[in-house]
TrEMBL record:
Molecular function, one GO term: ligase activity
Record motif 'KMSKS' region, residues: 195-199
Assembly behavior: Homodimer.
Protein's UniProt name: Tryptophan--tRNA ligase
Residues the record lists as binding ATP: Q9, P10, S11, G18, N19, G147, D148, D149, I186, K195, M196, S197, K198, S199
Binding site for L-tryptophan: D135
Cross-referenced Pfam families: tRNA-synt_1b
Keywords carried by this UniProt record: Aminoacyl-tRNA synthetase, ATP-binding, Cytoplasm, Ligase, Nucleotide-binding, Protein biosynthesis
Main location: cytoplasm
Keyword Cytoplasm: yes
InterPro entries to which the protein is assigned, alphabetical: aa-tRNA-synth_I_CS (IPR001412), aa-tRNA-synth_Ic (IPR002305), Rossmann-like_a/b/a_fold (IPR014729), Trp-tRNA-ligase (IPR002306), Trp-tRNA-ligase_bac-type (IPR024109), Trp-tRNA_synthetase (IPR050203)
Top-level taxon of the source organism: Bacteria
Top-level class of the enzyme under EC nomenclature: ligase
Name of the coding gene: trpS
């Protein structure tokens, strides 16, 4: 089976509906046809300041949410990045073959560092895409399911794989991005022109998967729409309505067109109530399962350790080859 790799940062206390639709839901459907590796990328998370205790808790919660939302640790490998040293080891080697100018062109760094102020941004944030390349290349990944915003990073991983292979001999599989559909990108409910983001300044436009059902429903009913009445998909003219259509389409597994037809001639009230009901119906059982699993942290740690062991086997073998190719001294 072709190998896929993807990850999420434990950078908040819960996943939000954007992470669910843009990542978890896609991953869930790929588990049978692919050899899937899903990582909890805590090394990426520390590229911006994190509270140590909060980070540890968020890491376990994220693992629990993966499982509760349908990632099956028996079929897929799901582990915590920092438990497999190969990620940091390979990142160092790749740092050394990446041009400074090349890394400076990464637009995510430009955006994130502009938000923090150039002096506050860490060097870790700057080399984030190179760590991501290491994550991908370490496991001979063929396909990387990501959002459109990550395309540039996967492109860098491809360039680095090709550069390493041509300098040191065939070592890495050159990965391809698998870009999710445009409708899998979810926007903030209060500012529907901006992506829903874990680190947004306010909470009102974010549906957290661990929000209580009443809070979920309230946030959706209060979502910003527009003064018209038509339920129609048009990101330019109707960003709020389009976002809710994208959400409902993902929840029901139906097309946007059929939803537009269903709500023709009906107002926003009906529509928003149905979106709220659909999200609550999907998330309430996941939330309950999350709370159940959280009660047994030792079991979660056992599951993570088992997966980390498998990942570590693959990673160690790859690191040995990489070190040998580069001319690093053999380890004892
Ligand atoms: N709004 C979104 N719509 C669809 N997919 C999304 N993803 C994130 N936000 C949306 C997908 O979720 C995964 C998580 O990626 P990440 O943890 O690396 O963080 P991110 O992409 O930077 O997401 P956030 O929520 O904005 O986190 P912070 O604020 O911590 O940076 C990826 O697959 C991403 O495509």
């Amino acid at each position: 089976k072709p190998r896929i790799f993807s990850g999420i940062q434990p950078s908040a206390d819960s996943l939000h509906i954007g992470n669910y639709i843009g990542a978890i839901q896609q991953w869930k459907g790929m588990q049978d046809d692919f050899d899937a590796i899903f990582c909890i990328v805590d090394l990426h998370a520390i590229t911006v300041p994190q509270d140590p205790k909060g980070l540890r808790e968020a890491t376990r919660t994220l693992a629990v949410q993966y499982i509760a939302a349908g990632i099956d640790p028996e079929r897929s490998t799901m582990f915590v990045q920092s438990q497999v040293p190969g990620h940091a080891q390979l990142a160092w080697v790749l740092n050394s073959i990446t041009g400074f100018g090349e890394a400076s062109r990464m637009t995510q760094f430009k955006d994130k560092s502009a938000r923090q102020g150039a002096d506050a941004a860490s060097v870790g944030l700057f080399t984030y895409p190179i760590l991501m390349a290491a994550d991908i290349l370490l496991y001979d990944t063929e396909l990387v399911p990501v959002g459109d915003d990550q395309k540039q990073h996967v492109e860098l991983a491809r360039d680095l794989a090709q550069r390493f292979n041509s300098r040191f001999g065939d070592t890495f599989v050159v990965p391809k991005p698998r870009i999710q559909q445009e409708t899998a990108r979810i926007y903030d409910l209060q500012t529907p022109t901006g992506k829903m983001s874990k680190s947004a300044a306010t909470d009102a436009g974010i549906v957290w998967m661990l929000d209580e059902p009443t809070a979920v429903a309230k946030k959706i009913r209060s979502a910003v729409t527009d003064t018209g009445r038509e339920v129609r998909f048009d990101r330019g003219e109707k960003p709020g309505v389009s976002n809710l259509l994208a959400i409902l389409s993902a929840m029901r597994g139906t097309t946007i067109e059929s939803l537009e037809a269903e709500y023709e001639g009906r107002g926003y009230g009906d529509f928003k109530r149905d979106v709220a009901d659909a999200v609550v119906a999907e998330f309430a059982p996941i939330r309950e399962r999350t709370i159940e699993l959280q009660a047994d942290p030792a079991e979660v740690d056992r599951i993570l350790a088992r997966s980390a062991e498998r990942a570590n086997e693959l990673a160690t073998a790859k690191i040995a080859t990489v070190h040998e190719r580069v001319g690093l001294y053999p380890s004892l």
